[in-house]
Design brief:
The protein is mostly beta strands. The chain has helices spanning 36-50, 55-60, 66-82; strands spanning 86-96, 103-112, 119-126, 131-138, 164-168, 188-191, 215-217, 222-228, 245-250, 256-262, 274-275, 280-283, 295-300, 310-311, 315-320, 323-328, 335-338. Strands 5, 6, 8, 9, 10, 11, 13, 14, 15, 16 and 17 form an eleven-stranded antiparallel β-sheet that branches. The structure holds zinc ion (ZN).
Length: 339
């Protein structure tokens, strides 16, 4: 969900990435459905097995062949050797995989004894206790957090109506994949969730995603600098490059809002036009470098896309996880709405 590959200028300490082949008797849709708490519980269980002396327990649930089982043992050995032992779990993510009924994922970000960067462990499984994939990788280094103490000059509010979920945000790479880039250093990705999931049905249609086709509004007073409104949208699970359909707003005082991945043809403002806070801009969509519908929003000090420095955003008068905030920055994993 960044707009471009996240490799520019980053140092990958020691990347390990192993995906296990799908089970040959793949029968998507047969496994039971899980609620989001169960997804967390199952994911924690498999990951605990992987990082403990109970690797065999994991392999017993593993829907792969002998060779895949060998690979998972090798992966564990490599992890021990290169990363050391897991010392702290930083945060976890859970969800359902697009296009596969009753297939779920669990992602854990944690610290290890031999390396500084957080490690991402991911597994996928179904509701019938079968594990399909297991992977481990080191996350890239964050860009320097310049302007960390910057105070937003413009009065900015959340750029949408209704209750949204902060899917990416914050200073660290483990909660905010944008943190590798200078311009998007403090960017956010927003989605909507119901019962912990971001889509219904199998998630392969944009309309399956709860945040698709929602009203996006101007976060502040300003003048429209640039609009792109003609980019075809992606099918969930696939993506192209760039910001897709996007809007750049000049708030004055060298503060520019960028709202990206919007729905093709939905943007209702034009360059040069003055906009008010809360004014309708367009609809959320799934265009550009987006694997599924979501809203990307960040503030920067340049009027050009992929240029300048990102700025921390202090939003005004909103509700985060049910608590009213007069002015503050958002964090990953918050449910937020305008007050
Ligand atoms: Zn983004």
């Amino acid at each position: 969900m960044t707009h471009r590959p996240a490799h520019n200028g980053t140092v990958i300490v020691a990347a390990l990435l192993v995906f296990f082949p799908a089970w040959k008797h793949s029968d998507d849709g047969i496994g039971s459905s899980l609620n989001i708490r169960d997804v967390l519980m199952f994911g924690q269980k498999y990951t605990a097995w992987f990082y403990s002396e109970r690797l065999d327990s994991l392999l017993n649930h593993f829907a792969g062949d002998e060779e895949a089982a060998r690979e998972i043992r090798q992966l564990r050995q490599k992890v021990d050797k290169q990363f050391g032992r897991e010392t702290e779990v930083l945060n976890e993510r859970t969800g359902r995989s697009i296009g596969k009924s009753n297939r779920y994922y669990y992602i854990r970000y944690s610290k290890f004894s031999k390396i500084r960067q957080p490690v991402k462990t991911e597994c996928s499984f179904d509701g019938s206790d079968r594990v399909f994939q297991f992977s481990v990788e080191v996350l890239p280094q964050e860009a320097a957090a310049k302007l960390l103490d910057y105070r937003t000059k413009a009065t900015l509010r959340l750029p949408f109506n209704g209750l949204w979920y902060v899917a990416a945000g914050g200073l660290n790479i483990n909660t905010n994949h944008h943190a590798v880039s200078t311009d998007q250093r403090y960017a956010y990705d927003f989605v909507m969730k119901k019962n912990g999931f971001v889509f219904q049905n199998d998630g392969t249609r944009n309309e399956d995603h709860f945040c698709y086709n929602r009203e996006i509004v101007s976060p502040g007073v300003g003048r429209i600098v640039e609009v792109v409104n003609t980019i075809d949208e992606n099918r969930p699970g696939e993506w192209t490059s760039g910001a897709g359909n996007y809007i750049i707003i000049d708030h004055g005082s060298s503060e520019y809002s960028i709202l990206a991945h919007l729905k093709r043809g939905s943007i209702a403002v034009t360059p040069g036009e003055k906009v008010q806070i809360g004014q309708f801009l367009g609809l959320s969509g799934n265009s550009g470098h987006a694997a599924m519908p979501h809203l990307h929003y960040h503030l920067q000090n340049s009027p050009r896309l992929f240029a300048g420095d990102g700025l921390p955003i202090r939003f005004r008068t909103y509700v985060a996880n049910g608590i009213e905030i007069e002015q503050g920055e958002l964090s990953w994993n918050q449910y937020v709405m305008n007050k």
